[in-house]
Description:
Blueprint: H1 3-8, H2 21-37, E1 52-60, E2 67-69, E3 79-88, E4 91-100, E5 106-114, E6 117-120, E7 128-129, E8 135-136, E9 140-148, E10 157-161, E11 167-178, E12 181-194, E13 197-208, E14 215-216, E15 225-228, H3 233-238, E16 245-247, H4 251-258
Parallel strand pairs: 1-15, 6-9
Antiparallel strand pairs: 1-13, 2-3, 3-4, 4-9, 5-6, 5-8, 5-11, 7-14, 9-10, 11-12, 12-13, 15-16
Amino acid sequence: MTAKRQREYPGRIRFAARLTGKLDKTLVAYASAATAAGVGILALTYPAEAKIVYTHIHKQIPFNKTFFLDLNHDGITEFGFNNTKATTSAGGWDFLTIFPTKSANRIWGDKTGIVFFRYASALAAGVQVGPNRQFTPGNKLMVHSSASGGRLRPPSSYNCNGPWKNVSNRYLGLKFPIKGNMHYGWARLNATCSNLTVTATLTGYAYETTPNKPIITGKTKGPDVITVQPASLGHLARGASAIPVRRGGDCARRTRSFM
Length: 259
């Protein structure tokens, strides 16, 4: 700015600074990683043609500690898992349950159950999860194991019941709102009973980005699917190359649409 223009506009002097090449690339990588990661501090934007967002994971549900599930990576959890285990002098029990974190969220459930719990359905692959399905509010029991001992029964008297008893690659049907519109998703788990212990492992989850559109359990490939890894701030610190993102179809074309 010339001296004359500085006198005319005394409070509006601005300087343009050029970032170093290294810093410029680092900031671009950080922003790209944040966009791809989907952590709570930043909104995750998907390509316009993406319809299903699938997250690959391998996580054992911990004992006596809640594990929360954020289906759409917006930093707000929709469901939680509890694997509650206890032992007593007369036996013990282990209950695996899933619960909605908000009253509007729903879980596909069986009509039967025990005490105050309905069972959560263990869906096979290829099932359509969408409107007019058997979604009900409240907590759902997946599988429970119990043991009775003492004078009347030996300690080896174990029972395991529920639709998630000793299953592999079965799916929970899930329903939750985004900005007032209902979306559908699924979570895939393996579960086993061994004596008094229920072991459950979450191996993946997905949701449909189009409101009120059904999703098919187990669909993880195709031009309408984007695959992401669970995000973390550690990934962001290491840059965009640390965020594994796989997309069906033309990978290079979709990468450009992220930026």
